[in-house]
Every structure is written in C-alpha cells, then in structure tokens.
Amino acid sequence: SLTREIGTTARPAGDLQTTGSASLELVQPILRRETQAEAVLQLNEAETAGLSLENARSLAILEASNSYLSVLQSQLIIRFAEEHEARLESLRVIMEERVNAGGASPAELQRVLARIQGIRATISDVRAGLSANIAELVLLTNSRPENVTLPETIEGFLPETIEGAFEVAKRNNWEIRTSRNLLESGNLTLRTILAKRQPTLDLSLTRDLERTWLDDGNFSRDTTIGLNMNWILFRNGVLDEELRSASARMKEAEIRLE
Known about the structure:
Order of helices and strands: EEHHHHEEH
Largest sheet: 4 strands, antiparallel
C-alpha cells in the first residue's frame, strides 16, 4: 500500500510551513493455511468439474447406445418372427391338405391358424415399438442410420469373466469417479474451514518518508521490517455452521459412493 499526505500551516511570522509524508508498505504472506487449503480445494473442484463433464458425455453415449440396441433388437425380433410365420404358413398348407384328405382333424388346423394369428400380432406390436425406438434414436443422435447391424467382431471388448466385467465397469464409470472426487472435495472443504482457525504470518516492509519545510528544513526516512501474526479467536459461530454443512455434504458423497 502507498499513502501520501501534504499539509500547509500558517506560522506567526506570516510565512507558510508545508509538510509532506509518504509511506510504502509491502506485505509477503509466509504462513496462511487457509489460502493453501483453498488452493488445493480449487484444484480438486476443477478436476471434479471435468469428471462431471465426462460423466454427462458417458451418459449421453450410453443412452444413445441403448436406443441403437433397442432398434436392432426390434429388427431382429421382426425378422425371426417373419421367418417363423413363413414356416407356419407352410405348415398350414400341409395341414389343410391333410384335413381334406382325412389325415388330420380340423382342430389341429385351427391350432396352426391360431399360432399364425399370434405371431402376426407379435410382429405388429414389435413394428409399433420399432417406430418409437427409431424416433428416439433420431432424437438422441440427430441422425437416422441407414443400416442398424451388430459389429462384425467384439473380441477384445468384453472381459473373459464376470469379475473382470465388474472391474472394467467400475474403472470406466465416470459417476463413481466423480463421487470419489466429491468425497475428497468435502474432506478438503473441512480442512479449509479448520484452517480458518489457524493464525496467519506475514513479512512486512514499511518505508516512511517525511519532509518538513522550516527555516532550516529537514528530511527523514524510516524503514521497518517485521513479522505480523493475526489470529482471529471468535467468529460468532460461523465456522461451526460451516463445519456442520461440510460434514453433511461429505456424508451425502459417501452414501452416493456406496
């Protein structure tokens, strides 16, 4: 900080006395645990924000992938159902010939016809669901794929065991990683609040200049180097409330992680 003062005083002899002073103070923090804890907390929050962004992207990709698989599943069901319907139609022709020849009863023919009607109803329902799935896929991806197929190979993508699959899922789960960072953020917040109770230590350098114009005039300088310690002993219960709030957020993060 820099301060400067100038004053003028009338003397009894009739002339004027002009005085001036300037002061320059430089302060270098040496020990401020609150600032150090706050810096670590900000780095953690920046990392958490990046993880939250990746989690949002992952969820969007997962939602689009599920929609894609729903379209593929509906198409496969329709294809298999149509193949089954064609086989039932062939069986119906055979059964009609056998009934006409007296080799089968009309009841057997009716059972085949009922199965045909059932598979046609299934195809109709799945087609309706397919239209809805395609509309959802277009909404999520803003495009309509010309051909929905399974990848030619999935080797190297899937773990060999269930345990391996769980490990891969946990390692690539952005929500879990975000929750861990949120838990760490809560712990750092507690440290930051506790650090506010600690004293601060600063190194200060003060340079004072004073000049007084008298008959004989004079000029003085004063340089001071010192250590300043500040310790706030009472904050009217604010820190206690902040500690309770931070502890509650940590508990929430622990529950989410579990």
